[in-house]
Amino acid sequence: MIAVIDCNNFFVSCERVFRPCLLDKPVVVLSNNDGCVIARSNEAKALGIGMGEPYFKVKHHCQQSGLMVCSANHTLYCDMSQRVMQIIGQYAMRMEQYSVDEAFVDFSGIPDVQSVARHLVQRIKQCTGIPVSIGMAPNKTLAKIASRFSKKYPGYQSCCFIDSDEKRVKALQLTAIEDVWGVGRKMFVKLAAGGVKTAYDFAQWGVTRVRNSFHKLGEQMWRELNGEYILDLETPAARQSLQHTRTFKHPIIDAETLHSLLVDFAVQVGIKLRKDRSAALQLNVFVATDRFSTLQPYVFRSTFHRFEVATNEARELAAAVGQCLVSLHLDGLPVKRAGVGATLIEHDGVQGGLFDTIDREKQQRLQATVDNLHAVIGEHSLRLASQTDPSSVVSSEHRSPHYTTRLSDVIEVK
Questions:
Q1: Residue 353: is its pLDDT beyond 70?
Q2: Between the chain's N and C termini, which has fewer beta carbons within 10 Å?
Q3: Is the alpha carbon torsion for 143, 149, 151, 155 positive or negative?
Q4: Cα 132 from chain centroid (whole Å)
Q5: pLDDT for res 150
Q6: Which of 209, 208, 207 is nearest to 191 (CA)?
Q7: How many helices (H) and strands (E) are present in the chain, helices listed first?
Q8: Main-chain dihedrals φ then ψ at residue 2, nearest 5 degrees
């Protein structure tokens, strides 16, 4: 049996763990720069607030309906996600983390698997405060359908099991085709034109019709809806690129301010690389003006720096940012969005360079010392001289403290 374990309204739930005053109230979490809604509590959904809706369109609910607003705190959410995933990993040999708040788990061969699932729900709630729902079925597609039922109907008590053909048929009949995992807009239009309204309608098609209408993924979905096991759990592939980007509250014209912000972005990229135990051979930098401005044309510029030896060290990445900015020739360009990325990533050791003059062993020891200090006294406790805190130019007026990752933000019990 395959299970989907999904955290309920994850970002909102993370906020509620440390702020009980948010319980049973309409809550939304806003995107970076407080632009739009990226997470909603059930109470906020009941107010008709849609996903991706601009904040200014829902702001009136704050006074009219008591809507509570939180700025995205991704540091907190990622840390809470790791805690949830660690608990899930204790219950199964095979697991695929599908997203920050969702995982597929193979419970094959586990006796009394329904009791195990219910115990897992309780364990995650007890250890992290995060409510989860579990859907279990013979394959991924049916497990996703079961997960929807476990969230939608309280009678399931957070666990829904499709463990018989009778339950499978009933679940398909009650599931709109657009709610099936993997059905995108184009596929939905094609299915609707063929008279398909529910997952059951599609499952009733013949294999020849499915093959003539869709590619391999469409046939895989159809087979799984009919109970076959097709899609196996996947092992996450090593990242080939990563980036750190931000949209600013106001356009940045001052070159020194922009430089210090991009250095901070490069430092964050370095943290991600070291966490993955990898290094990058190329650093990319881009800047862009406001694409919605009526006062000036949209401008996008990018460049890159190629290292002699792949690196993840903060000072080396920061120096590359300075060189990239010189080549971009900004000349007072009002930058609204910018980012730093790493490509040509090496995972299995770093190949040295013939003309490399840096003492790599000394560099690694220094960086490890800095990382250890950050782990003990906070990420921003020790900075590069050219590095600044981006919070001054990125709007996050409603962001909660870093309760689990910053010592100064740990809640005190009096």
A1: no
A2: C
A3: negative
A4: 17
A5: 95
A6: 209
A7: 15, 12
A8: -105, 135
**What distance in Å separates the CA atoms of residue 236 and residue 335, rounded to the nearest whole number?**
35
Q: Give the type of residue at 184.
A: G
Tokens 């809604």 belong to 37
Q: CA-CA distances (angstroms) from residue 193 to 71, 152, 187, 219?
A: 41, 28, 10, 18
Tokens of 68: 């509570």
Q: What is the pLDDT of residues 189-235, one digit of tens each?
A: 999 999 999 999 999 999 999 999 998 999 999 999 999 999 998 87
Q: Which residue has the tokens 């050791």?
A: 349
Q: How far is CA 69 from the centre of its chain?
A: 20
Domains defined along the chain, listed by start: 1-134 (3.30.70.270), 164-236 (1.10.150.20), 242-377 (3.30.1490.100)
Question: Which amino acid would we find at residue 32?
Answer: N
Cα separation, 170 vs 156, in Å, equals 15
Residue 2: closest CA among 161, 239, 185, 121: 161
User: Which residue type, as a one-letter code, is found at position 42?
Assistant: N
The answer for residues whose C-beta is within 8 angstroms of residue 316's C-beta and 6 or more apart is: 307, 358, 363
Copy the structure tokens of residue 193.
């034109």
Positions of E strands within 61-139: 68-71, 94-99, 102-106, 132-137
Distance CA 322, CA 51 (A): 38
Q: How many residues does the chain have?
A: 414
- DSSP-assigned letters across all residues of 255-298: HHHHHHHHHHHHHHHHHHHHHTT-EEEEEEEEEE--TT-SSS--
How big is the CA angle at 235 (ends 231 and 237), to the nearest 5 degrees? 120
